[in-house]
Amino acid sequence: MLIPSVHxxxxxxxxxxxxxxxxxRDKISVxxxxxxxxxxxxxxxxxxxxxKKNFTHPHALEFLRHLLRHLRGHxxxxxxxxxxxxxxxxxxxxxxxxxxxxEHFPAYAPELNPDExxxxxxxxRLANGRPDxxxxxxxxxxxxxxxxxxxxxxxxxCILKSDLPFV
Length: 167
Fold this sequence. Notes:
Layout: E1 28-36, E2 43-51, H1 57-70, E3 75-79, H2 88-96, E4 100-104, H3 115-126, H4 134-149, H5 152-161
Parallel strand pairs: 3-4
Antiparallel strand pairs: 1-2
Helix pairs in contact: 3-4, 3-5
């Protein structure tokens, strides 16, 4: 959101740091995922943005199409229990694309989801900033995700930090 997230920062002794911003509730919704190759050597990060709206089934299906265009062979997708990750549109899509296999994390188990680590890193890079509009936020968010995607060590750390077994 355009409302800045605040983390620890430096300031002269006795002076409280102040982040001035205009109160705007504009936002960017993001869906993302980490890919792991079958031999666990190559890692990737995929994402899609949606400006000023929340994701719905059609947006989730577009993300699945994006993944299938970029990943070869069978794709096993681990998803949380979000409402857009279930339902008839998703089941119908999986029937049409048998190489896509969906599995769900247990309810309320973000500690198993390696993608949470990606967002921890991305939000840390955006902390204490104050973008003036959605375009500036989008540019900063994109730069943060590209930086993470280009660093296999960061992606591997997100997987290893989660409680998901990396077998």
